Amino acid sequence: MKLAISGKGGVGKTLIAGTLSRLFARDNFKVLAIDNDSAMNLSYTLGIDDSTKAKIVPISEMKEMINERTSVSGAESGVYNINPEVSDIPDRFKVEGPDGLQLLVLGGIEEPLSGCLCPENALIRKLLYNLLVKRDEVVVVDFEAGLEHLGRGTAKGIDVMIVVTEPSQKSLDLCHKIIELSKKLGVLNIFLVANKVINDKQIEKINERVREWQVPLYHSLPYDTEIGNADLNGISPIDYNPQSDGMKSLKVLYLKLKALKKELFDL
Ligand SMILES: Nc1ncnc2c1ncn2[C@@H]1O[C@H](COP(=O)(O)OP(=O)(O)OP(=O)(O)O)[C@@H](O)[C@H]1O
Ligand SMILES: [Mg+2]
Q1: pTM score
Q2: From the CA of 172, how far away is ligand 1's center (Å)?
Q3: 139 CB contacts (<8 Å, ≥6 apart)?
Q4: Which atom of ligand 1 is nearest to the CA of 223?
């Protein structure tokens, strides 16, 4: 199953991507977590140990490898291969984390102009396609907010798009755009998840707003000070306090997704 997590900056994408990865791995699924956010902090939420973390080089910064893969022999500068060979990259550069899970850090790309198709972008795009369409693990992608690298082919590989919102209209605005884009690109299961929810009134408001969207609220996660405390102590939230309200609710979300996985794949 390929899961992608998206939403506005700071809503809790990395928390959800990292914790779900841990829960799948703990349940003996083979898991590959993908960090596609320029802040690259999924390794913290996953609880990757410091010495491994120090060794990680994001793929987007492997200039030599990118040049080698995208160069076209004999071509003038500015001409490059937009369909580079990438199938060996995940297994070469992934690192091992707790519960046997694996992490691949793609990193972010600074785009000089919107729509730039520089070699780094071409490689990351192809890599995402490869990860979402060609692999057979549980793949969890912590996406960057704008879904820049999501093309139609790649989107079709996504079995579940989790769109995360905070209880705020601004955050819901972006969710609406992401949901529409995901639908257009052919993603079949799009789930809205509210995070940092303080009371039922907020859930009511969210439900009011999404009534017309055909994507109802799938799950809501409470605001949980233990998640902030974990962050402050540099410890993965699931290791810091697995019994906190937020972690308990994430386990419920995990069980829903596991049931869906069974429905979709175990014929
Ligand atoms: N349910 C929650 N309760 C309390 N704090 C939370 C909760 N979820 C996330 N946080 C805190 O909110 C902050 C943002 O969370 P996170 O990094 O997961 O969001 P993000 O969407 O990945 O952000 P970015 O767009 O910057 O990558 C973190 O400090 C995290 O500890
Ligand atoms: Mg993040």
Answers
A1: 0.94
A2: 16
A3: 1, 2, 3, 31, 32, 33, 34, 131, 132
A4: 3
Pocket perturbation via mutation, ligand 1, pick of 13, 15, 147, 162 by most ligand atoms within 8 A of CB: 15
Sign of CA dihedral 24, 10, 203, 199: positive
Q: pLDDT tens-digit profile of 59-86?
A: 999 999 999 999 988 888 778 888 999 9
Residue showing tokens 């999404």 = 210
Q: How many CB atoms lie within 10 A of CB 32?
A: 22
In 146-265, beta strands by DSSP E: 160-165, 189-197, 217-222
Give the distance (Å) from ligand 1 centre to CA of residue 11.
Answer: 5
Instruction: Enumerate the domain spans of the chain.
Output: 2-265
Ligand 1: which residue has its CA nearest to atom 29?
228
Residues in contact with ligand 1 (CB, 6 Å cut-off): 7, 9-15, 37, 39, 145, 195-196, 221, 223-224, 227-228, 231, 246
- Taking only the tens place, the pLDDT of each residue in 191-237 is 999 999 999 999 999 999 999 898 999 999 999 999 999 999 999 99
CATH topology of domain 2-265: Rossmann fold (3.40.50)
CA 206 to ligand 2 center in whole angstroms: 22
